[in-house]
Amino acid sequence: MYTPARPTVPDSRLHVVAEQSRFAGSRGWPPRTALVTGASSGIGREAALLLGEMNCKVLLVGRNGVALDEVAASTSGHRIAVDLSVPGAEATVASRSEDLLGDLDLLVCAAGLGSASPFDQLSHEALAELVAVNVLSPMALVRAVLPAMLERGHGRILLVGSVAGALGVRGEVAYSATKAALVGFANALRSEVAGRGVTVTLCFPGVVDTAFFRRRGAPYVRRWPRLQPARLVAERMLLATGRGQAEIWVPRWLSFAARVHGVTPTLYRRLAGIFG
Ligand SMILES: NC(=O)c1ccc[n+]([C@@H]2O[C@H](COP(=O)([O-])OP(=O)(O)OC[C@H]3O[C@@H](n4cnc5c(N)ncnc54)[C@H](OP(=O)(O)O)[C@@H]3O)[C@@H](O)[C@H]2O)c1
Questions:
Q1: CB neighbours of 84 closer than 8 A, spacing ≥ 6?
Q2: Which alpha helices (DSSP H) does 34-136 contain, by range?
Q3: What would the pLDDT profile of 149-178 be if each residue is shown by its tens digit?
Q4: Which residues line ligand 1 (CB under 6 A)?
Q5: What Cα–Cα distance (Å) separates residue 251 from each residue in 34, 79, 134, 229, 260?
Q6: How much distance in Å is there from the Cα of 215 to the middle of ligand 1?
Q7: Where is the Ketoreductase domain (predicted)?
């Protein structure tokens, strides 16, 4: 099993748990119930552990049953081992969630996979899997849980995107496109549900110290930007969700790169050409 390096920043977990009380007045926060995909590893796993510490009842979703059991033991959560690339998986997950958790306060879509193959060498199967897990599965899960959230007049949706989706990263063409799809999805959905008690938060992590790189078949070899601890990303994105923020960038300075990209794409392309 992948063991991430110890965080290089102070553990602010207690801060996160404590800060939840500041938003306790807002309906549905801190969450009493949460469904977390990608809970067996990396960012989703850390988010599930944090939610467990907030006494939130969590349904953990992933494929690796052993890893899910380990997280379930630490969170007193339930788990369901399911391949989210299989059509209809979201219906199974949503129905288990209703049975085990009842009303759902929070949906965290963290499951995802990368791809580092040059686009002209990517197989159709690999492309289809990327789209299924990174785009279709979060959209289908949101569609499955949203009607009940809207009916109750509260709910939180947290999507894990990537800076690659905002900027487009060479060597990760298909992956960037799947994460860009989440930007459009989150923006449109947020606008559609505005004023109805449901918030949509999109997290833009940079590079995070998880099994992601090994799994995509290409290790992260650059010295900069530095790898962020998965726990830090989980803490920041949950805080942002509690506040009802639309976006959260980890680290924060990455939003500057996106602003340069938006305001002056030509300059951005020149800089990206120099710095990669
Ligand atoms: N690490 C980074 O640098 C980075 C940067 C930006 C964005 N992100 C995004 O962050 C999210 C979490 O990634 P991570 O870094 O935490 O990677 P990770 O440690 O590899 O975790 C990926 C998670 O997704 C689950 N998953 C993948 N394919 C699945 C499938 N077909 N069905 C069900 N579950 C599936 C995995 O479950 P199993 O292990 O049980 O298969 C695992 O729990 C992803 O959406 C990724 O795109 C990561």
A1: 37, 61, 90, 93, 111, 132, 133, 137
A2: 42-53, 65-75, 89-101, 124-131
A3: 999 999 999 999 999 999 999 999 999 999
A4: 38, 40-44, 62-64, 67, 83-85, 110-114, 133, 160, 162, 205, 207-208, 210-212, 215, 230
A5: 25, 30, 21, 10, 16
A6: 9
A7: 32-210
The pLDDT score that the predictor gives to residue 223 is: 82
Cα(264) to centroid(ligand 1), Å:
32
Residues 228-257 have pLDDT tens digits of: 999 999 999 999 999 999 999 999 988 887
Whether the bond between 30 and the residue before it is cis, its omega within 30 degrees of 0, is: yes
C-alpha dist (Å) from residue 268 to 130, 165, 173, 226:
27, 15, 17, 20
Question: Who contacts 21 (Cβ-Cβ below 8 Å, separation ≥6)?
Answer: 30
Alpha carbon of 111 to ligand 1 centroid (Å): 4
In a domain? residue 5:
no
- Rounded Cα distance between 31 and 36, Å, is 12
Of 232, 182, 242, 237, the closest CA to residue 208 belongs to 232
C-alpha distances in angstroms, 252 versus 46, 60, 178, 185, 249?
A: 19, 28, 22, 22, 5
Closest to 210 measured CA to CA, from 225, 223, 228: 228
Domain that holds residue 115: 13-275
If one counts the domains in the chain, the total is 1
- Residue 245 belongs to a domain with what CATH number? 3.40.50.720
**Residue 7 located in a structural domain:** no
Residue spans of the chain under pLDDT 70: 1-27, 275-276
